[in-house]
Design a protein that fits this description.
The strands form four sheets. Strands 11-12-16-15-14-17 form a six-stranded antiparallel barrel, surrounded by four helices. Strands 2-1-3-4-5 form a five-stranded parallel beta sheet, with helices on both faces. The longest helix is centred in the N-terminal third of the chain and has 26 residues. The protein is built from 15 helices and 18 strands. Helix 6 packs across helix 15. The chain is globular. The chain is α/β, with parallel strands linked by helices.
Length: 549
């Protein structure tokens, strides 16, 4: 006779009629969780106050504060699973997000949770919950889980209170996403001259394949950045799965003299490295030499496997083994690049960027590679990057986004290029082995932005246009100080898309950007839309970009 023995079930947590359950999710790294906790505690108090004063409800934590660890975040998938195993599956739950969070800690639990789910973010640049919320939103969309999303600067404005009231009453919040307009194969853009160019490039990509080489996947809990293999196959962009351990071996093969030549090349062109003596807290030359070895190794892998783009798993991968990947990532994605020799002496892809899939996010690999192929075929500057949708605020009567990738961009995206770049040490909180960022102010110009996500195995692409601006020095520094000053910052407006529309409809914490000359913007947008439709994507064009079609 079989004997069944399972761990004891915890007591079921069911809220009283006047209670609302909430959980708080954050990082896997305890150093980050401790640093981010004071901001979380502040917003937790604001949530409790709003529920009590405006709705007569009591906020009830579904998991304890861990005084011995200095924070009250859920900090692992195991912890999140245990917390939700004890929650009434039909109870409404608020997920309070005030910092970067690893979506996989909770996403699989939320996907099976029957009760209404609200993703609630602080709209603040310090430890940005808005970034974490957008990541979790894209993840739940990919998992097919209905949810609501809400954001606020202080949890006291009418937008926040109206949204919270709606969710408490109905479990849903209706946001304005009218900025997204569907474009399909029947749209006149497909028959335009520019559309025909896009169709030809899309057909070429489907036939020849744009192979995306990623050194491991699943960076920092970003489930929204891991696409089904069928989805990639259907759009002609298959995955070449590579190992970061193999990358370390390839780096070890790069001789010291070649590393030194690489670093000297960038110094001669004016990049300023903020050197120090203490490798635990400061940037040192050996750290950047190691990054130069990574740059060379990445290019050799791209050459060896015939990759269209390449990406490194990033913070939770190599961070404990070598210097951060940022300098290598920004440099390889630049057109002006140290001449990297293949092992047979050939220079690898001179005069062309190799698109770098930062944080191995397949949702940006798709538009980055497509835009590179399109712009390169048209003889236009073809550097691409992703950015975090980090924050944004008003200046001189207008709202400007702060797009801030956590380490580097192609040099061509910076004001001043290589000479406008500063190398900071990556913050020790995240990177114990150090390494240089490529920091600076994003240059002014017109841009196309995009993001891919998936529903089922179908790839969806959101596309729009924008204006990158160079804000005055004092305002730029205010924004840099309010976010992370070691990282590159791009300020921009998105054409015909408000702050709240982007927050309501975007399916990722990331956004892909490419600069396009004003005189070619409309033609490139038309070609890009046609290219995506040809590659079997569902395309939505955002804001007034639609008028350019």
């Amino acid at each position: 006779m079989l004997t069944l023995k399972l761990p004891l079930e915890p007591a079921r947590l069911t809220p009283a009629p006047d209670e609302v359950l909430f959980v708080t999710n954050a990082d896997l790294r305890e150093s980050a969780n401790v640093a981010c906790w004071p901001v979380e505690a502040k917003y937790e108090a604001l949530l409790e106050k709003a529920l009590a004063e405006h709705f007569g409800k009591r906020a009830r934590r579904a998991h304890p504060i861990k005084a011995d660890r200095g924070h009250g975040f859920i900090a692992s998938q195991r912890e999140g699973s245990d917390v939700f195993a004890a929650i009434d599956p039909d109870a409404p739950v608020i997920v309070l997000l005030t910092a970067w969070q690893y979506s996989h800690h909770l996403a699989n639990c939320l996907a099976r949770h029957r009760g209404p789910v609200l993703l609630l973010a602080n709209f603040d640049g310090t430890w940005p919950g808005l970034v974490g919320m957008l990541c979790m939103a894209g993840t739940l969309t990919a998992l097919g889980k209905p949810y609501a999303r809400l954001w606020s600067e202080a949890f006291d404005d009418a937008f926040f209170l109206d949204g919270l009231k709606a969710w408490l009453a109905t479990g849903t919040i209706a946001h304005d996403v009218s900025h997204l307009r569907r474009v399909d194969a029947g749209h006149p853009v497909m028959a335009s001259e520019a559309g025909a160019v896009g169709v030809r490039i899309g057909e070429w990509s489907l036939r020849h394949k744009e192979i995306i080489g990623l050194f491991d996947t699943y960076c920092m809990g970003m489930m929204n950045g891991v696409f089904p293999l069928k989805a990639l196959a259907d759009v002609g962009m298959p995955l070449e799965s590579l190992s970061q351990s193999d990358l370390l071996m390839e780096m070890a093969k790069v001789p010291e003299a070649l590393r030194e030549a690489c670093l000297s090349w960038y110094e001669a062109r004016g990049m300023r490295f903020l050197w120090g003596d203490d490798p635990a807290t400061e940037l040192t030359r050996p750290q950047v030499l190691e990054q130069c070895a990574m740059l060379i190794a990445l290019a050799r892998f791209a050459d060896r496997f015939g990759l269209s783009a390449v990406g490194v798993q990033y913070q939770q991968g190599l961070a404990r083994a070598c210097a951060a990947s940022d300098f290598a990532e920004g440099a390889i994605g630049s057109t002006e690049r140290f001449p990297i020799p293949a092992e047979d002496g050939r220079i690898i892809r001179p005069g062309k960027p190799i698109p770098c899939v930062n944080e191995v996010d397949m949702g940006t690999a798709i538009p980055q590679t497509m835009l590179f192929r399109l712009l390169d075929a048209l003889g236009l500057p073809s550097e691409t990057t992703l950015h975090d949708i980090r924050w944004g605020s008003d200046f001189d009567g207008a709202f400007y986004w702060d797009l801030e990738i956590s380490g580097s961009v192609p040099f061509e995206h910076l004001k001043g290029g290589i000479a406008g770049a500063t190398g900071h040490r990556q913050p020790p909180m995240y990177f114990p082995k150090g390494g240089s960022t490529i920091a600076g102010q994003g240059k002014a110009g017109r841009l196309i932005w995009a993001r891919a996500h998936y529903e089922g195995t179908t790839v969806h692409l959101h596309v729009g246009t924008g204006h990158a601006v160079e804000l005055p020095t004092q305002e730029f520094r205010r924004r840099l100080d309010a976010t992370t000053r070691e990282w590159p910052l791009l300020n921009c407006t998105l054409d015909g898309v408000s702050r709240d529309q982007l927050m309501a409809g975007h399916q990722s914490n990331h956004i892909t950007v490419a600069y396009v000359p004003e005189e070619h913007l409309a033609e490139v947008l038309r070609a890009f839309a046609a290219q995506a439709i040809t590659q079997n994507m569902v395309v939505d064009v955002a804001g007034t970009a639609y008028d350019l079609l």
